[in-house]
Amino acid sequence: MDQINCCCCCCCCYIGLFSKIADNKIGYLVKKYCKDLDVELDISSFKVGNLFSVKDSVPDKLRSRVVYKFSCAGCSARYVGETSRHFTTRVREHLSTDRVSHVYKHLQNSDKCRNLCTEKNFIILDSASTVFQLKIKEALHIQWQHGNISG
Questions:
Q1: What is the distance between the alpha carbons of residues 148 and 8, in angstroms, rounded to a whole number?
Q2: Is residue 94 over pLDDT 60?
Q3: How far apart are CA 104 and CA 97, in angstroms?
Q4: What pTM does this model have?
């Protein structure tokens, strides 16, 4: 005789009377119509929150600990970087205030590139939960993207 187990664990003491009634009815139907099967029903409770996240997703511009890519709109230059701060904060620095940034220097050397590039030329490639993971992922993405712009 085959045996079928359903669900996860037997928690009937927590589920209540309706679970016992369902168990009895299913057992009766199996014995009546599937005589060769021995069905044991295990019923457990669960939280609806376990099925999906109850938190709103963070908009890209407010994400932190991300690896990002800049693709120049005026030429084929690209840059991969990482930041532990808000993505949009780092992007704005590249475009206007961080004078030692390779992206900033690249844009300052070409009027065409400077005039064509905006925040839309930056995309998030990856994210990490720790700074160590972030550095590793940045290095991997630099390899996969075949290098960076140099200053």
A1: 50
A2: yes
A3: 8
A4: 0.64
